[in-house]
Design goal:
single chain, 7 helices, 161 residues
């Protein structure tokens, strides 16, 4: 072809396709965004649940600290107050039908099975079954009972619960 013939053909240069638009994104990006949002939502849910359980545990331990510093007329009142606190925590953590009717040795076995490790039935916690029902109970080992209750509360009302 001669240069004058090419000028008469009105040919155009090759053009590339337009770049893809920024919006809407491809389906893979939507899937990734949904996955990231679900992961973040679950993470926030777990953190809030951990924070609430931790705060609840701190309030219960503060109540136990108040019992430690409180003055009681006799040892039976102190033991009854500790047992009541433990029962309240147990009712929050376990089914009511499983906990509400327990008393005496059954209550101690429940406490051992749920975090006491045998120290309620055979250790300083055994006073929980006997002291409230005796006329003149001997003074329990107050610090040992409080330490045992504190340990049980941490296992049952804590963030890992």
């Amino acid at each position: 072809m001669t240069p004058s013939a090419a000028a008469h053909l009105d040919l155009r240069d090759i053009h590339a396709a337009a770049p893809p638009a920024f919006w809407p994104p491809a389906p893979g990006w939507w899937l990734l965004a949904a996955l990231v949002a679900a992961t973040l939502g679950y993470g926030v849910f777990v953190l809030i649940r951990y924070y609430r359980r931790r705060r609840l545990q701190q309030r219960i331990l503060a109540t136990l600290d108040e019992l430690e510093s409180a003055e009681f007329d006799n040892p039976a009142q102190f033991v009854s107050a500790v047992s009541t606190l433990l029962r309240r925590v147990a009712l929050m953590r376990y089914r009511r039908s499983e906990v509400a009717s327990l008393s005496g040795d059954a209550w101690l076995r429940f406490l051992d099975a749920t975090g006491g490790g045998g120290t309620f039935a055979d250790g300083p916690g055994s006073v929980l079954a006997t002291a409230p029902y005796t006329r003149e109970p001997e003074a329990p080992a107050r610090q040992e009972l409080l330490a045992l209750a504190r340990q049980w509360i941490r296992r049952n009302a804590g963030a890992s619960a």
